[in-house]
# Entry
Amino acid sequence: MPWPRLYPKIFDFNFQNINSYGRKSTFLCFEVERWKNGSFLNSLKGVFRNQLNPGHAELCFLDWFCDVVLSPHVQYRVT
# Structure
């Protein structure tokens, strides 16, 4: 499941300009909008972090999107 946002403490730890153990995480920030009544509506925002299983943040997002959000009858815009 995605985080609702990237928390300040995690941001500060991971995005300091130093090379140190534990600072090699990948974060994927996303916004998913659904088409409804002639326009895109802002519906879902969040953050995924790389994990041991399934791994890359991108794969975590795609697994979540396909399993939880995706419907064949809805048009989406993903940023």
